[in-house]
Write a structure and sequence with these properties.
The protein has nine helices and nine strands. 48% of the residues are buried. It has 254 residues and is an alpha/beta fold. It has one domain: Alpha-Beta Barrel (TIM Barrel), CATH 3.20.20. The longest helix is centred in the middle third of the chain and has 22 residues. GO terms for molecular function: 5-oxoprolinase (ATP-hydrolyzing) activity; ATP binding. Its EC number is 3.5.2.9. Keywords: ATP-binding, Hydrolase, Nucleotide-binding.
Length: 254
């Protein structure tokens, strides 16, 4: 199993999360590309820290929405969205090369992530961007979403992920952050929940229903309160149960 987190999201003097501590826990780092968060110097620092620890790096692409932290819905044209995604990945590729690592996958952020899970047009635009830039990139997507099969049908490698600290609806979608209980805070309960996912392929929804999820990566949000402790407990619980942890991109390459 892989554990990933969103990193590189600090902006100037404004600090977001604890990248150094999380990089000691996760196996993959979704690094901001400047559109929803992150400044070049901070992103480069995070990439160097990831390289030192052998953590796989992915591009955390987003809508151009610094003020809304990439969590506001947008409806860009296909030409805009394709170019925006290519631009962000390209920028991160340059910084990653300077840091002694490389971008191996792409995980969309926030509103873009949730939109393309079910919006065919925007989903196809993101797929087109990856294929145009580097067909060897892997797309990290929401488990159970139609996007997964659409991307695979076009020859793109896709890995499904589950969210440790987010509540699920009965249909396998994420509970909106606008609703109570959408974000989970009990680290021990979250860790046990993720072990349940690994063992059974199921999570318990917000209504108590068992929902099937096929996932090869677990996300712990770096901006959640207590994120570092939660990530540590998830990792420890899985390791104590004998679950091997490694970057999903390494698994894909055997």
């Amino acid at each position: 199993m892989d554990i990933n987190s969103d990193l590189g999201e600090s902006y100037g003097v404004w600090r977001m999360g604890d990248d150094a501590a999380l990089l000691d826990v996760v196996t993959s780092a979704n690094v901001a590309c400047g559109f929803h968060a992150g400044d070049p110097a901070g992103i480069l620092h995070t990439l160097r820290a990831a390289a030192e620890r052998g953590v796989a790096v992915g591009a955390h692409v987003a809508y151009p929405d610094l003020v809304g932290f990439g969590r506001r819905n947008m409806d860009p044209s296909s030409a805009e969205l394709v170019a925006d995604v290519i631009y962000q990945i390209g920028a991160l590729q340059g910084l990653a090369q300077a840091a002694g690592t490389r971008v191996r996958y792409v995980k969309p952020h926030g509103a873009l992530y949730n939109t393309i899970a079910h919006d065919a047009r925007q989903g196809d635009d993101v797929i087109s961007a990856l294929l145009a830039l580097d067909p060897q990139l892997t797309l990290l997507a929401l488990a159970g979403s139609p996007l997964i099969e659409r991307a695979r049908a076009r020859g793109l490698r896709v890995v499904a992920e589950a969210f440790a600290d987010r509540a699920y609806n009965d249909d396998g979608t994420l509970v909106s952050r606008r609703l109570p209980g959408a974000v989970l805070h009990d680290a021990d309960a979250v860790a046990e929940r993720m072990l349940q996912l690994v063992r059974t392929g199921e999570v318990t929804s917000i209504t108590g229903t068992r929902v099937r999820l096929q996932a090869d990566s677990i996300c712990v949000h770096g901006d959640s309160p207590g994120a570092v402790d939660m990530a540590r407990r998830v990792r420890a619980r899985l390791q104590d149960a004998g679950v091997a942890l490694r970057p999903f991109v390494d698994t894909l390459q055997g």
